[in-house]
Amino acid sequence: MPPIPLGLYVHIPWCVRKCPYCDFNSHGAEGTLPEQAYVSALLADLEQDLPRVEGRTVQTVFIGGGTPSLFGPEAIHHLLEGIASRLPLATDAEITLEANPGTAESGKFRGFREAGVNRLSIGVQSFNDRHLHSLGRIHDGQEAIRAAEIAHAAGFENFNLDLMFGLPQQSREEALEDIRIALALNPTHLSFYQLTLEPNTLFHKYPPPLPGDETLWEMQETCQALLYEHGFRQYEVSAYAREDFNTVELNCSTPFPWQGDKSAGLPICTAQPPAGGWTGIVQSERWDRGKILETPAQPRDSAQGSGVLPPPCPPPSRHRYLRKSESTRKSTPSPLQGEGWDGGRDSLNPEAPPYRRRSTPTLTLPLPGGGDLCRYPRPSRGRGLNSTVLHEGLRCRHNLNYWRFGDYLGIGAGAHGKLTDTSGTISRSWKIRHPQRYLETAGTPACIGACDRVSQRDLPVEFLMNHLRLRQGFAEAIFGERTGLALDDLEPGLSECLAVGLLEKCGSFIRCTDKGWNFLDNVLERFLKTSN
């Protein structure tokens, strides 16, 4: 059985001011923050958990809050250095830090980058000053724009912007304007979610006037359409990632069987390559859509991969590249040919000189079912194209691990963790919530709020609550790998949801239909009912 991925969540609970809609474990800062003492407490907390993850490698680190960017770069450096000295980190570990525009300073962002943070998540919520005021945010729209600009200047090529819709008295056009501004700031990822009135918040006690259901639906649909038009693909209920140079989508010039849906998910190709070879759609820094014309007959430079490939796009009627940049021939279509795709010629104008793409090493990936290998160029920026990057692109890998029912440690006041032991038993734990009490007890059993085993009866619903948030759904094999149960343990809820069109099977994948996606709570209620 493949090892279950492991992430690390670090909670820093202080904010400048508690927002009226926030139900997270966050506390308004009073006076000077105990940065050094809290980092020491976090590392003591981690040491206490180490025996539970001995020999395992951390793939992702997420520093959340609260507002972690209230801490200085020195504290974050000490924290990450302490984590790396206690736990093995993957060489390409994704390390995210949440930041708010009100705390954005160019010196801080550069310092976070130097400390080892390679991804930011900036809590913008809106660029409209009136809506920011109604949400109790401490920044204005210009500060939000400036925060994204500072992130770019500090060297963050990968950052997320948090945006809300359905704000008090918000119009559809105002929601669209927030998206337009966000897109202009060139993030790699957007979290776009509806404001909800959560229990134990000021907004729940004193509800503000919110848009009606019809307006909310229009906001969501029009904003999603605008995101799609600009290359952002929804892969989770509220998460959108930009298709970029790390995204490779494979297609075939002739029909062949897939395990999975061609429009969503991560299908596995089970066919032998056709006589004409494999055809691929590649998106990169310089090129928009096109065709891979070379398929080597013999494996060369084989890469290790999981055998799961991103979903294919429907092939265009003519396989062409559209040149994105470089002053001459910017919009002329052309296929690319040859090693590294140098020397591609314009199929509509054979007399035109060949395009020259900068030389890049190529990577070969074995296709499931045997046969030839597909080749495509390695991205020129950042780390090389490995199996993880190929599959995830610019999605948030840490959150994907949650949704795929992976394991994670949680350190910090109120932090939650989920771990699977060697016998396959899954347990959830959490640390005490109040910051001062946490500081006093970190590293001792008194710091642990509880540690409970997840019962076999609850496992199916827990798995589905996470996996069905993803557009791709889940592969049948993953259910067994992550829960130790058989697919029959999802019955009779699974058959019922399939029968009424809330779920669908695509080869070995199970996912929500559009109907099920829009009524996910109803899907989960059916499984809760049958499990009880």
What does this molecule look like?
This protein is 29% helix and 23% strand. With 532 residues, the protein is α/β, with parallel strands linked by helices. The strands form eight sheets. The chain has a nine-stranded mixed sheet with strand order 9-10-8-7-6-5-4-1-20, sandwiched between helices. The chain has a three-stranded antiparallel sheet with strand order 15-16-17, with no helix packed on it. A hairpin with a 5-residue loop joins β21 and β22 (426-431). It is globular. The two termini are 29 Å apart. Residues 245-391 have low confidence and may be disordered.
List keywords for this structure.
single chain; 532 residues; alpha/beta; nine-stranded mixed sheet; 29% helix; globular
Mean pLDDT: 76
Q: Give the termini distance in whole angstroms.
A: 29 Å
What is Rg? 24 Å
How would you describe the shape?
globular
Percentage of residues in strands: 15-25%
Task: Compile the SSE list and pairings.
Layout lengths: L5 E7 L1 E2 L11 E2 L6 H15 L8 E8 L7 H14 L2 E11 L6 H10 L3 E7 L3 H6 L6 H13 L5 E7 L6 H13 L4 E6 L7 H4 L7 H17 L2 E5 L2 E4 L5 E5 L5 E2 L8 E2 L8 E5 L4 E2 L32 E3 L9 E2 L27 E5 L6 E5 L9 H6 L4 H7 L3 E6 L3 E5 L5 E6 L3 H7 L6 E6 L5 H9 L6 E2 H8 L9 H7 L3 E4 L2 E4 L1 H5 L1 H12 L1
Parallel strand pairs: 1-4, 1-20, 2-3, 4-5, 5-6, 6-7, 7-8
Antiparallel strand pairs: 8-10, 9-10, 11-14, 12-13, 15-16, 16-17, 18-19, 21-22, 22-23, 24-26, 25-26
Helix pairs in contact: 1-2, 2-3, 6-8, 12-16, 14-16
